[in-house]
Amino acid sequence: MLDDIFQNIINKYLSRKNKKIYYLYFSIFKFLTKSKFILNFKDYKFYASFSRKSLSRWMLKNLKPWDNENVERVIYFIKKYNGSFVDCGCNFGAYSIPIAKKFEDQNIYAFDASKKAIYNLEQNIELNKIKNVNYFNIGIGDKNTEVYFNENIDNLKNDGSFRFTQNKDNEKINIYKLDDIFKNEKISLKENIIIKLDLEGFDFLALKGLSETIKKSKVIIFIEISKMLLENSENFSNEFDLFIKNNRLNIYDLNLKRKDVDEIIMSLNASDKNKETIGDYIISNHKLL
Protein backbone atom coordinates (compact mmCIF):
# COMPACT_ATOMS: atom_id res chain seq x y z
CA MET A 1 0.00 0.00 0.00
CA LEU A 2 2.73 2.48 1.01
CA ASP A 3 4.79 1.53 -2.03
CA ASP A 4 1.85 2.19 -4.36
CA ILE A 5 1.26 5.58 -2.74
CA PHE A 6 4.87 6.66 -3.16
CA GLN A 7 5.06 5.33 -6.74
CA ASN A 8 2.03 7.49 -7.57
CA ILE A 9 3.74 10.48 -5.94
CA ILE A 10 6.82 9.87 -8.12
CA ASN A 11 4.68 9.67 -11.24
CA LYS A 12 2.95 12.91 -10.31
CA TYR A 13 6.07 15.00 -9.67
CA LEU A 14 8.52 13.48 -12.16
CA SER A 15 7.81 16.00 -14.92
CA ARG A 16 7.23 19.02 -12.67
CA LYS A 17 9.84 21.74 -12.29
CA ASN A 18 8.86 22.69 -8.75
CA LYS A 19 9.54 19.66 -6.56
CA LYS A 20 9.50 21.24 -3.09
CA ILE A 21 6.48 19.21 -1.98
CA TYR A 22 8.04 16.05 -3.39
CA TYR A 23 11.17 16.54 -1.25
CA LEU A 24 8.90 16.56 1.80
CA TYR A 25 7.36 13.25 0.71
CA PHE A 26 10.85 11.85 0.07
CA SER A 27 12.04 12.81 3.56
CA ILE A 28 9.08 10.96 5.10
CA PHE A 29 8.89 7.82 2.93
CA LYS A 30 12.63 7.10 3.14
CA PHE A 31 11.97 5.86 6.69
CA LEU A 32 8.91 3.82 5.73
CA THR A 33 9.96 1.55 2.86
CA LYS A 34 13.00 -0.21 1.43
CA SER A 35 11.38 -1.13 -1.87
CA LYS A 36 12.57 -0.28 -5.36
CA PHE A 37 10.58 2.26 -7.37
CA ILE A 38 10.39 2.97 -11.08
CA LEU A 39 11.52 6.33 -12.43
CA ASN A 40 9.79 6.65 -15.78
CA PHE A 41 11.79 9.31 -17.59
CA LYS A 42 10.79 10.44 -21.06
CA ASP A 43 12.49 7.72 -23.12
CA TYR A 44 13.65 5.15 -20.57
CA LYS A 45 13.14 3.86 -17.02
CA PHE A 46 15.30 3.07 -14.01
CA TYR A 47 14.79 1.21 -10.77
CA ALA A 48 15.76 3.31 -7.75
CA SER A 49 15.75 2.78 -4.00
CA PHE A 50 16.13 4.69 -0.72
CA SER A 51 19.25 2.73 0.21
CA ARG A 52 21.89 5.23 1.34
CA LYS A 53 24.61 3.30 -0.46
CA SER A 54 22.80 3.04 -3.78
CA LEU A 55 23.71 5.50 -6.55
CA SER A 56 20.10 5.27 -7.66
CA ARG A 57 19.04 7.07 -4.46
CA TRP A 58 20.24 10.37 -5.96
CA MET A 59 17.84 9.89 -8.89
CA LEU A 60 15.00 9.03 -6.54
CA LYS A 61 15.64 12.13 -4.45
CA ASN A 62 16.07 14.56 -7.38
CA LEU A 63 13.83 12.86 -9.96
CA LYS A 64 16.57 13.35 -12.54
CA PRO A 65 18.68 10.89 -14.56
CA TRP A 66 22.20 10.25 -13.31
CA ASP A 67 24.98 12.12 -15.19
CA ASN A 68 22.48 13.33 -17.76
CA GLU A 69 24.70 16.08 -19.20
CA ASN A 70 27.52 13.63 -19.90
CA VAL A 71 25.08 11.14 -21.41
CA GLU A 72 23.90 13.88 -23.77
CA ARG A 73 27.53 14.65 -24.69
CA VAL A 74 28.11 10.98 -25.55
CA ILE A 75 24.95 10.94 -27.66
CA TYR A 76 26.18 14.06 -29.48
CA PHE A 77 29.49 12.40 -30.40
CA ILE A 78 27.83 9.14 -31.45
CA LYS A 79 25.62 11.11 -33.84
CA LYS A 80 28.38 13.39 -35.10
CA TYR A 81 30.89 10.63 -35.81
CA ASN A 82 28.53 7.69 -36.38
CA GLY A 83 30.36 5.91 -33.58
CA SER A 84 30.02 2.80 -31.43
CA PHE A 85 29.63 3.21 -27.67
CA VAL A 86 31.60 1.23 -25.07
CA ASP A 87 30.67 1.65 -21.38
CA CYS A 88 33.46 0.62 -18.96
CA GLY A 89 32.27 0.65 -15.37
CA CYS A 90 28.65 0.54 -16.51
CA ASN A 91 27.15 0.00 -13.03
CA PHE A 92 23.32 0.03 -13.21
CA GLY A 93 23.32 1.37 -16.78
CA ALA A 94 23.15 5.14 -16.28
CA TYR A 95 24.82 5.58 -19.68
CA SER A 96 24.11 2.29 -21.45
CA ILE A 97 20.32 2.32 -20.95
CA PRO A 98 19.50 5.79 -22.38
CA ILE A 99 22.08 5.42 -25.17
CA ALA A 100 20.73 1.99 -26.14
CA LYS A 101 17.22 3.45 -26.29
CA LYS A 102 18.47 6.33 -28.44
CA PHE A 103 20.33 4.09 -30.89
CA GLU A 104 18.22 0.95 -31.09
CA ASP A 105 19.79 -0.02 -34.42
CA GLN A 106 23.29 -0.53 -32.99
CA ASN A 107 24.89 -2.62 -30.25
CA ILE A 108 26.06 -1.05 -27.01
CA TYR A 109 28.90 -2.78 -25.13
CA ALA A 110 28.93 -2.57 -21.32
CA PHE A 111 31.55 -3.90 -18.88
CA ASP A 112 31.69 -4.10 -15.11
CA ALA A 113 33.80 -6.19 -12.74
CA SER A 114 31.02 -6.24 -10.13
CA LYS A 115 28.43 -9.02 -10.13
CA LYS A 116 26.11 -6.76 -8.13
CA ALA A 117 26.40 -3.96 -10.70
CA ILE A 118 25.69 -6.37 -13.55
CA TYR A 119 22.62 -7.66 -11.69
CA ASN A 120 21.27 -4.09 -11.42
CA LEU A 121 22.05 -3.51 -15.09
CA GLU A 122 20.15 -6.68 -16.04
CA GLN A 123 17.11 -5.49 -14.09
CA ASN A 124 17.09 -2.14 -15.92
CA ILE A 125 17.60 -3.84 -19.29
CA GLU A 126 14.58 -6.03 -18.60
CA LEU A 127 12.56 -3.06 -17.33
CA ASN A 128 13.19 -1.22 -20.61
CA LYS A 129 12.82 -4.32 -22.80
CA ILE A 130 16.18 -3.52 -24.38
CA LYS A 131 17.80 -5.99 -26.79
CA ASN A 132 20.93 -4.12 -27.89
CA VAL A 133 23.03 -3.89 -24.70
CA ASN A 134 25.75 -6.55 -24.73
CA TYR A 135 27.17 -6.77 -21.20
CA PHE A 136 30.18 -8.56 -19.73
CA ASN A 137 31.02 -9.23 -16.08
CA ILE A 138 34.77 -8.65 -16.40
CA GLY A 139 37.29 -6.03 -15.30
CA ILE A 140 39.21 -3.70 -17.61
CA GLY A 141 42.96 -3.04 -17.23
CA ASP A 142 46.32 -2.75 -18.97
CA LYS A 143 46.97 -6.50 -19.11
CA ASN A 144 45.10 -9.81 -19.11
CA THR A 145 45.37 -11.21 -15.61
CA GLU A 146 43.54 -11.88 -12.34
CA VAL A 147 43.14 -9.35 -9.52
CA TYR A 148 41.30 -9.13 -6.22
CA PHE A 149 38.06 -7.17 -6.32
CA ASN A 150 36.17 -5.57 -3.44
CA GLU A 151 32.41 -5.27 -3.75
CA ASN A 152 31.61 -5.49 -0.04
CA ILE A 153 29.24 -2.55 0.30
CA ASP A 154 29.64 -2.53 4.10
CA ASN A 155 33.14 -1.04 3.90
CA LEU A 156 32.66 1.13 0.79
CA LYS A 157 31.12 4.57 0.29
CA ASN A 158 28.41 3.36 -2.11
CA ASP A 159 27.68 0.82 -4.85
CA GLY A 160 29.64 2.96 -7.30
CA SER A 161 32.82 2.40 -5.26
CA PHE A 162 33.43 -1.28 -6.03
CA ARG A 163 37.13 -1.52 -6.91
CA PHE A 164 40.27 -3.59 -7.43
CA THR A 165 42.24 -4.17 -4.22
CA GLN A 166 45.39 -5.78 -2.82
CA ASN A 167 43.34 -7.37 -0.05
CA LYS A 168 43.48 -11.15 -0.54
CA ASP A 169 40.32 -11.63 1.53
CA ASN A 170 38.36 -10.57 -1.56
CA GLU A 171 37.40 -12.69 -4.55
CA LYS A 172 39.68 -12.84 -7.58
CA ILE A 173 38.27 -11.74 -10.95
CA ASN A 174 39.52 -11.66 -14.53
CA ILE A 175 40.59 -8.39 -16.13
CA TYR A 176 41.40 -7.82 -19.81
CA LYS A 177 42.84 -5.17 -22.09
CA LEU A 178 40.25 -3.44 -24.27
CA ASP A 179 42.59 -4.01 -27.23
CA ASP A 180 42.10 -7.77 -26.82
CA ILE A 181 38.42 -7.54 -25.93
CA PHE A 182 37.75 -5.65 -29.17
CA LYS A 183 39.20 -8.58 -31.13
CA ASN A 184 36.44 -10.86 -29.83
CA GLU A 185 34.05 -12.02 -32.56
CA LYS A 186 31.11 -11.07 -30.32
CA ILE A 187 32.09 -7.40 -30.56
CA SER A 188 31.67 -5.42 -33.77
CA LEU A 189 32.78 -1.78 -33.62
CA LYS A 190 32.61 1.04 -36.10
CA GLU A 191 35.67 3.05 -37.13
CA ASN A 192 34.83 5.72 -34.54
CA ILE A 193 34.53 4.56 -30.93
CA ILE A 194 33.19 6.55 -27.99
CA ILE A 195 34.35 5.07 -24.67
CA LYS A 196 33.37 5.93 -21.11
CA LEU A 197 35.88 4.96 -18.40
CA ASP A 198 34.69 5.06 -14.79
CA LEU A 199 36.87 2.54 -13.01
CA GLU A 200 37.54 3.96 -9.54
CA GLY A 201 41.13 5.05 -10.12
CA PHE A 202 42.08 2.32 -12.60
CA ASP A 203 41.03 4.43 -15.57
CA PHE A 204 44.60 5.12 -16.72
CA LEU A 205 45.43 1.41 -16.69
CA ALA A 206 42.41 0.83 -18.92
CA LEU A 207 43.61 3.65 -21.17
CA LYS A 208 47.02 1.97 -21.52
CA GLY A 209 45.22 -1.20 -22.59
CA LEU A 210 43.83 0.75 -25.57
CA SER A 211 47.15 1.48 -27.31
CA GLU A 212 46.48 -0.68 -30.39
CA THR A 213 42.94 0.62 -30.78
CA ILE A 214 44.13 4.23 -30.61
CA LYS A 215 46.53 3.58 -33.51
CA LYS A 216 43.95 2.10 -35.86
CA SER A 217 40.65 3.73 -34.82
CA LYS A 218 39.34 7.17 -34.02
CA VAL A 219 38.51 7.27 -30.32
CA ILE A 220 36.77 9.71 -27.98
CA ILE A 221 37.28 8.73 -24.34
CA PHE A 222 35.39 10.15 -21.36
CA ILE A 223 37.60 9.71 -18.29
CA GLU A 224 37.37 10.75 -14.65
CA ILE A 225 40.56 12.26 -13.22
CA SER A 226 40.89 11.45 -9.52
CA LYS A 227 43.51 11.16 -6.81
CA MET A 228 43.09 7.40 -7.01
CA LEU A 229 45.01 7.54 -10.31
CA LEU A 230 48.07 8.64 -8.33
CA GLU A 231 47.73 5.61 -6.05
CA ASN A 232 47.43 3.07 -8.88
CA SER A 233 50.45 4.11 -10.97
CA GLU A 234 54.08 4.23 -9.82
CA ASN A 235 54.62 7.62 -11.44
CA PHE A 236 51.28 8.73 -12.85
CA SER A 237 52.34 12.26 -13.84
CA ASN A 238 55.21 11.13 -16.08
CA GLU A 239 53.45 8.02 -17.40
CA PHE A 240 50.31 9.95 -18.29
CA ASP A 241 52.30 12.71 -19.99
CA LEU A 242 54.31 10.21 -22.07
CA PHE A 243 51.19 8.25 -23.03
CA ILE A 244 49.38 11.36 -24.25
CA LYS A 245 52.41 12.58 -26.24
CA ASN A 246 53.42 9.19 -27.69
CA ASN A 247 49.88 8.53 -28.90
CA ARG A 248 49.36 12.11 -30.13
CA LEU A 249 46.24 12.54 -28.04
CA ASN A 250 44.33 15.71 -27.27
CA ILE A 251 42.78 16.46 -23.87
CA TYR A 252 39.64 18.58 -23.45
CA ASP A 253 37.43 19.61 -20.58
CA LEU A 254 33.69 18.99 -20.96
CA ASN A 255 33.29 22.36 -22.70
CA LEU A 256 35.82 21.18 -25.32
CA LYS A 257 38.49 23.59 -24.16
CA ARG A 258 41.97 22.19 -24.76
CA LYS A 259 43.95 21.18 -21.67
CA ASP A 260 47.52 20.00 -21.21
CA VAL A 261 48.84 17.35 -18.86
CA ASP A 262 50.75 19.80 -16.65
CA GLU A 263 47.57 21.78 -16.07
CA ILE A 264 45.64 18.66 -15.07
CA ILE A 265 48.38 17.36 -12.76
CA MET A 266 48.66 20.77 -11.13
CA SER A 267 44.90 20.82 -10.48
CA LEU A 268 45.06 17.29 -9.12
CA ASN A 269 47.88 18.07 -6.69
CA ALA A 270 46.29 21.35 -5.61
CA SER A 271 42.83 19.94 -4.97
CA ASP A 272 41.43 19.80 -1.47
CA LYS A 273 42.39 16.73 0.57
CA ASN A 274 38.74 15.77 0.94
CA LYS A 275 38.06 16.14 -2.79
CA GLU A 276 38.72 12.84 -4.53
CA THR A 277 38.14 13.93 -8.13
CA ILE A 278 38.81 17.08 -10.15
CA GLY A 279 36.24 16.24 -12.81
CA ASP A 280 35.68 14.49 -16.12
CA TYR A 281 37.78 15.05 -19.22
CA ILE A 282 37.73 13.93 -22.83
CA ILE A 283 40.79 12.32 -24.44
CA SER A 284 40.82 11.81 -28.19
CA ASN A 285 42.96 11.36 -31.28
CA HIS A 286 40.33 13.54 -32.99
CA LYS A 287 40.53 17.30 -33.07
CA LEU A 288 37.14 17.97 -31.54
CA LEU A 289 37.07 21.76 -31.95
Outline the structure in words.
The chain folds into 2 domains: 2-62, no CATH class; 68-284, Rossmann fold. 36% of the residues lie in helices and 24% in strands. The chain contains 12 helices and 14 strands. The protein has helices spanning 2-13, 20-29, 56-62, 68-81, 96-102, 115-128, 178-181, 203-208, 211-216, 228-231, 236-246, 261-270; strands at 36-40, 45-49, 84-88, 108-111, 133-136, 139-141, 145-150, 163-165, 171-177, 192-197, 218-226, 250-252, 258-259, 277-284. α5 links the parallel β3 and β4 (108-111).
Count of alpha/pi helices: 12
Q: What would you give as the CATH superfamily of the largest domain?
A: Vaccinia Virus protein VP39
Taken from the alpha-carbon principal axes, the silhouette is: globular
Sheet with the most strands, sense and barrel status: 8 strands, mixed
CATH topology heading of the largest domain:
Rossmann fold
Secondary-structure content class: alpha/beta
Strand order of the largest sheet: 5-4-3-10-11-14-12-13
Regarding quaternary structure, what we see is single chain
Order of helices and strands: HHEEHHEHEHEEEEEHEHHEHHEEHE
Radius of gyration: 19 Å
How far the N terminus sits from the C terminus, by CA atoms, comes to: 54 Å
What's the total number of strands? 14
Mean pLDDT: 93
Chain-wise SSE layout:
Layout lengths: L1 H12 L6 H10 L6 E5 L4 E5 L6 H7 L5 H14 L2 E5 L7 H7 L5 E4 L3 H14 L4 E4 L2 E3 L3 E6 L12 E3 L5 E7 H4 L10 E6 L5 H6 L2 H6 L1 E9 L1 H4 L4 H11 L3 E3 L5 E2 L1 H10 L6 E8 L5
Parallel strand pairs: 3-4, 3-10, 4-5, 6-9, 10-11
Antiparallel strand pairs: 1-2, 7-8, 7-9, 11-14, 12-13, 12-14
